[in-house]
Design a protein that fits this description.
eight-stranded mixed beta sheet; alpha+beta; globular; four-stranded antiparallel beta sheet; 10 helices; 552 residues
Length: 552
């Protein structure tokens, strides 16, 4: 195993979560935004945590034993690391949110278990009054910060409005503070029939928060629109939910407006389980991945041309990423296949996306709207097959130092769901690995094998993954059914950070190809890496001397 260029940090250990919930509560899903992480439980409730920076934790816990050990060892005590201030700290529990029509109580161990004889004790009417709340299968925070979409095990999708008070500044992170351990979440939108009886596999908000996409394992894709109708845009705006109240329409409705104005839902049958759905920057198009195809859906018209022509079978994902265009050379861009090439191409810039393909390949594709403004046009500009780097240990992996030094070949895996991970990276997940992609370079930066039955934490398995900026939050799957932990994976967040990471990899590798790729990355990112240039010059001088010696 080699050192990774992305960093793992434990932000909620098992003991931390156990101090918040009862022994029978299990976390099944999670999501994150700039200020919060939410965990969905088998009780049908949401557990809301505030994100904090590691620097704030160090300040708050300076008197703790852990901080003292860090100070003694010199760790985290200097400001030389430019990324130190952005390091993720421990999560802080805020509240438990339950739908208003469900009791916000946690299940507890039965104090009167069934006798071994099989006879059932008579608990009378009290037992008949028990309300069972379906477990949460998916959660997705609204970009506005005051709502969250949830999908339960019965296939019902709801949007809950949080009872947060006025935001306050806590430490160095913008946090919304609540006054109670538990609070009701008012249901302001409900999609009861679109996925009824199915397992909801995906939830995604558009960047402006006006549309919610939801997909299930039966192939149904729902797009729920909460845009304020044009004839109601002059009405009162709930400034507590949205900071920018003077934005030009259209805009999404506030929780208060949703109580009086119904949202609209469009249902599309694809005939194949939905693996992923990703909105473009404007929220007008969806890159949809099913088990047998990928297509781009125009929300306004419902037109959905297929992306590429080659068949596939499996949960391969796709997402929009502006930097994907940089992975396409001029030669490849000119020879791309797909629909809409030639005179049909609009002069305005299109949106770029990455789509996973069988054989651990990636399609880099461009999409735009045709002249009518309603028909998506797509073309596959390049097919990439990134080389697999030496694997790095995920948290909980078993160390292999005592085993033979022969490099272990990673198990075969395929790319699955593709998530944007900041400005320059993407996170690819499947059942056997998590991989960080260098999107502009079309290369795999880090590979973390998972699914080891003898390991723990992330190395054992990842139950759910969410990304916020250049950080991925992973809910660990553990051998103990009731145990959970949350880890944060921090990837390079800027072109400069990416260039440094690739340069570090080249220095460790020492090969000419690695230096060439690092130089190409730095050039493409327009980043001056003096250390990289010196290492590359030294490598080239050594190669030149070796060539001259061989010729002599």
């Amino acid at each position: 195993m080699v050192a990774a260029h992305s960093r793992w940090r434990a932000v909620a250990e098992t003991s931390d979560l156990a101090s918040v919930v009862g022994p029978r509560v299990r976390f099944l899903c999670l999501d994150a935004d700039e200020t919060h992480v939410v965990l969905g439980a088998n009780t049908g409730s949401l557990y809301v945590f505030a994100r904090r920076r590691a620097s704030a934790d160090a300040t708050e816990d300076a008197s703790s034993d852990a901080a003292a050990r860090d100070a003694d060892s010199g760790r985290d005590s200097s400001s030389d690391d430019p990324e130190r201030d952005d390091a993720e700290g421990a999560l802080r529990f805020l509240t438990m949110v339950s739908p208003a029509d469900a009791p916000p109580i946690e299940p507890r161990e039965d104090p009167n278990p069934e006798p071994e004889t099989g006879a059932r004790p008579d608990r009378g009417a009290a037992r008949r009054n028990v309300t069972v709340t379906p477990a949460l299968a998916r959660v997705k925070l609204h970009p506005g910060g005051s709502m969250c979409a949830v999908a339960n095990a019965a296939g019902v999708v709801q949007v809950l409005a949080f009872a947060f008070s006025t935001p306050t500044q806590a430490g160095s992170v913008h946090q919304r503070v609540v006054s109670a351990r538990s609070s009701p979440g008012r249901v302001v939108v409900q999609v009861p029939h679109g996925h009824a009886g199915k397992r909801v596999t995906w939830l995604e908000w558009s960047a402006d928060g006006r549309r919610l996409a939801s997909g299930d394992d039966g192939g149904a894709l729902c797009v729920t629109d909460i845009t304020l109708p044009s004839d109601a845009r002059s009405f009162h705006d709930d400034s507590r939910s949205f900071a920018a109240t003077n934005q030009t329409p259209p805009r999404c409705m506030t929780p208060t407006e949703l109580l009086t104005t119904a949202a609209s839902t469009s249902v599309y049958e694809t005939g194949s389980p939905i693996a992923q759905a990703s909105f473009d920057a404007a929220g007008d198009a969806l890159a949809v991945s099913t088990a047998d195809a990928a297509f781009v859906l125009a929300v306004a018209s419902g037109v959905r041309p297929r992306l590429g022509a080659k068949p596939r079978l499996g949960p391969f994902g796709a997402c929009f990423h502006a930097r994907a265009a940089e992975a396409v050379s001029l030669e490849l861009a000119g020879s791309g296949s797909g629909s809409g090439l030639g005179s049909d191409r609009k002069k305005c810039a299109g949106e770029w996306l990455i789509a996973a393909r069988p054989g651990r390949r990636l399609w880099v594709a461009e999409t735009w709207l045709d002249e009518d403004g309603r028909t998506p046009v797509t073309r596959v500009a390049a097919t990439l097959r990134p080389a697999v780097p030496p694997p790095s240990n995920a948290p909980g992996a078993i160390e292999t130092r005592d085993k033979p030094t022969r490099q272990t070949k990673p198990r075969k895996f395929e790319f699955g769901v593709v998530r944007k991970l900041g400005d320059v990276c993407a996170l690819v997940e499947c059942d056997r690995a998590l991989a960080v992609l260098d999107v502009p370079g079309g290369a795999m930066l880090d590979l973390f094998p998972i699914g080891d039955p003898a390991a723990r934490d992330i190395a054992f398995g990842a139950r759910d993954v969410a990304t916020s900026g250049a950080k991925a939050f992973v809910l660990a799957e553990r051998p103990e059914a009731s145990a959970s932990a949350v880890w944060c994976l921090e990837a390079p967040a800027s072109p400069e950070a990416l260039a440094r990471a690739v340069a570090d990899a080249a220095s460790l590798d020492g090969g000419a190809d690695a230096f060439a790729r690092a130089l190409a990355t730095a050039t493409r990112m327009r980043v001056v890496e003096m250390g990289l240039l010196e290492d590359a010059r030294g490598e080239l001088r050594a190669l030149s001397s070796a060539t001259a010696a061989a010729a002599a």
